[in-house]
Amino acid sequence: MKNIKQLQNVIEYFLLKTLVFFFRLLPEKLALFLLKGLAFFASDILRIRRKVVKDNLIKAFPEKNNKEIEKIIHKHYYNLALTAYESFIQKRKETHPYTLEGWELIEDALEHKRGVLVISGHFGNWELAGQYLAQKGVKLNVIIKRLRNPYVNDYINAPRQKAGINIIYKSKNMKPVFRALMRNEIVVMLVDQDAGKEGVRLPFLGREASIITGYARIALKMDTPLVLGIFLRERPGYFHFSFEKLVLPAKSRNASKNYLRIVNLMNKGLEEYIKLYPEQWFWVHRRWKGSRKATPVETIEES
Question: How do the domains of the chain map onto residue ranges?
Answer without folding.
Answer: 2-89, 98-302
